[in-house]
Amino acid sequence: MAVFAAGLGIVAYATGIFHRPELETIDARFQVRGSNPSLVKNFVIVGVDSQTLAEFQAESHKTNGRFKSEWPFPRRYHAQVIYNLLKAGAKHIAIDIQFTQQTDPTDDDDLAYAIKKAGHVVLATTSVGPHGTTDVFGGAAVLETLGHAVAADAENIIDTDGIFRRMQYSYQGLETFGTAIAAETMGKPVSPKLFGGATTPVPIDYAGPPGTVPSISYYKVYDDHFPASMVRGKTVIIGVTASILQDVHPTPTSGEGSSGQLMAGSEIVANQAATVIHGVPLRDDAGWVNVFLIILLGIAAPLLGLRSWALRALLGGVIVGVLYLLAAQIAFSSGSIIAVVTPEFALVLGIVGTLGVVYLGEAFERQYARTTFARFVPPGVVDQVLASTDDDLRLAGVERVCTVMFSDLRGFTKFSESQPVEKVIAVVNHYLNEMTEAILESGGTLIAYMGDGIMAVFGAPLDQDDHADRAMRAAREMIGERLQGFNDWLAEQGHISGFRMGVGLNTGPVMCGNVGAEQRVEYTAIGDTTNTASRLEGMTKGTPNMLFVAEATRDAMHDPPEDLQFVDEFEVRGRASKMRIFSIPDPPGSPQD
Q1: CB 202 within 8 A of CB 271
Q2: 406 phi and psi, to 5 degrees?
Q3: pLDDT band at 590 (very low <50, low <70, confident <90, very high)
Q4: Rounded to the nearest 5°, which phi and psi values hold at 465?
Q5: 344/349 Cα distance (integer angstroms)
Q6: pLDDT in tens, 278-315
């Protein structure tokens, strides 16, 4: 089982079956870790938000359309924003807006002059040609004349579930936007070795949920109505944040469900740049580490259950699983991402498999014992026989108050004398099957078959508070629908039908337990109560009643049936005084003597 659990876990890891659930655990780890705004303290976003769109629309109405409010804004607006940021002391500027096409020449020149004055502005683009070439402001040669501005790739890596979790150093030879911003902020180039390769994805170390990076509405900067202290000495990223402009995306820190918030692309870029500046603190552990952890968790429960200790395997496995989750969170907070779902999957396989092996083995043993003992004792007492500590598997005698039943099929002996043996056996088996079902369905325990006679007890070996009611219910069914069904079957088979029964019920103390020799034991109930029940059954012969119920049984019932009526007082052999006997009317259509 250890090999199976670990092996299947490794296969699941290799095939990526749990790739998406594994990604979701990373999101959960971000949520548990919480926010750390200090990671992005040197970044500010100037966002074209819904408030900006509303303010510009209002301004457009005031000027009868002379103020342009439609997106994309005229490039002279961006130039004005850059001038105001420089005046406020912004240290670095990045623009998450694409400028690959010409617009109004005057507007284009205004923006170009503003970028040149700012110097080393990072400009985003999603149009990247061979060897990292772009059309931003006409290409790299033109950008070099604009204060050494640089273009960077703004494409993002999107996981299979649509969430932005990773970034890379470059795309087609052009540095990614976050990497280029980090290089400008640090004042030195970033080496691809930090990522492990130019196109190797690394986790973005998000500082927190959407809104963790400070932001200012674009229109406030445009109007120069914002606190300069917010941008002084900071790296400012200009971009769109209004959801209507469709540059908002889910991230690991966005939250779940309908209440989850999307993060603006410019804030994702800020988190990317901060990740690079801090040396890419989050790393995926090597594959061999995860394989080792899968093996370790896969064999944990089977090792704990080696001595068939199922409970220890279960509890130990659960503890190992919880400790592993804690370890994974601690590792995450320390910068290491280890697999969670696949190792836990291997652990669960090991737990379930170990429990299955232990309990299946025990079940085979119990079934073997049951099969053996069932030849000697009724099925209802097998568990008690197996639990007995007596070497010869005898249940110690226990005194219980029970209801004992005896039943007999009237006239069957005469019938059997005139029939072939095969037919007699078939008939008696059908009869006993019908009556046995009625007894067992009411919770009775079969003690013995005596030809066509049956002895059963209610309330032993297991206590039943309502044993008298159960016995009465079984007796009514036996002399009613079960007997009718048996007679109907006899008629269908071409046999003589119209048989009647005799049933006796008595309640009182009996001694219950196994009796017999070492080679053969049987469960029985002994005592005066049993003898009286047998005699009550015999006393039904020659009477209009198929059922005799002792007064003790009627008194023991929780809910005596309304049709249970007093019959008479009878002398009962072996008893000094007469017994009050009760009965119910025979069911309609019952055979008559």
Answers
A1: no
A2: -125, 140
A3: confident
A4: -60, -30
A5: 8
A6: 999 999 988 899 999 999 999 888 888 776 567 777 88
Count CA atoms closer than 13 A to 590's CA, side-chain side. Answer: 22
CA dist 17 and 349 (Å) reads 15
Q: What is the pLDDT of residue 382?
A: 62
| pTM to 2 decimal places | 0.64
Pairing of strands 122-125, 92-95: parallel
Q: Strand, helix or coil at 241?
A: coil
pLDDT greater than 90 at residue 454: yes
Q: Which segments of 42-171 does DSSP mark as H helices, in order?
A: 50-62, 75-88, 105-118, 140-145
Residue at 282: amino acid letter = L
Give the contacts of 547 (CB within 8 A, at least 6 positions apart): 475, 476, 479, 503, 504, 505, 540, 583, 584
CA dist 83 and 117 (Å) reads 8
Whether the bond between 72 and the residue before it is cis, its omega within 30 degrees of 0, is yes
Spatial distance between the Cα atoms of 531 and 515, rounded to a whole number of angstroms: 17
**Top-confidence range, 64-73, 76-85, 364-373:** 76-85
Number of Cβ within a 10 Å radius of residue 420: 9
468: tokens are: 């008298």
Q: What is the 3-state secondary structure (H, E, C) of 78-97?
A: HHHHHHHHHHHCECEEEECC
Among 202-206, 321-325, 332-336, 363-367, the range scoring the smallest mean pLDDT is 363-367
CA 382 to chain centre: 36
What span, in angstroms and rounded, lies between the C-alpha atoms of 37 and 41? Answer: 6
